[in-house]
Amino acid sequence: MSAHSEQTPQEYIQHHLTNLAEGQGFWTWHLDSLLFSVGLGFIFLWVFYSVAQRVTLGVPSKLQCAVEMIVEFVQKSVQESFSGRSPLIAPLALTVFVWVFLMNLMDLLPVDWLPQLAQMAGIDYLRVVPSTDLNVTFSLSLGVFFLIIFYSIKVKGFNGFIKELIYQPFNHWAMIPVNFVLEAVTLIAKPISLALRLFGNMYAGELIFILIALMYSGNWAIASLGVGLHIGWAIFHILVITLQAFIFMMLTIVYLSMAHEEH
After folding, report:
1. Is residue 3 situated within a structural domain?
2. Catalytic residue numbers?
3. Rounded distance, CA 169 to CA 186, Å?
4. Predicted confidence (pLDDT) per residue in 195-227, tens digit
């Protein structure tokens, strides 16, 4: 985990914060974010499917115990926070929690390991934490946003959805423009806050790991200090990555619960 001697600290940081991109402008694809996010999604599905196929009622394996604990935790969270009835919410909450957690977990890998392997293979840039990419976090939050709109219209009807936008919080025809602005801002703020909260926390964590890695290029005394800081921050960051996955899941449940409420 040492910085390249031919790079300045600014170049080293910029290199680690640059995605493997293809295309230009709006149609730029961050191939590394797509690779790791989709790959982690498949790993999540494969592990949970494999455990479900080999469930035992006697003495379960450690992996089965871990999966059952996660499922029960998510199920309890849904029961306590979701007021409506929908067969989609619990599986969605489970997917959101585990998938975001796995993407965040990539931040615990030493910052130089995979990028250096990629450089040996001729790939100049590689970011391994998908949740530090604003495109990924906004994609997740926009998926939740579309579900909010879908269930709002499904439960309340299109007319009911529109009335909720124009007659709340002030139930008077003269306040329709004010109500619409307030409700529209509240609605749009939901996916924006979801995306920016996850991105901001994970981006800051990644940047701290990069700054600590810069210390390894100094003398042995500074490098040894960097090892201690790295381990300490990694231990603390375990709490951060878990908390961010939990917050994203809980806000998803709460927003969809609000979409199921009839006024």
Report:
1. no
2. 193, 197, 201
3. 12
4. 999 999 999 999 999 988 887 766 666 666 667
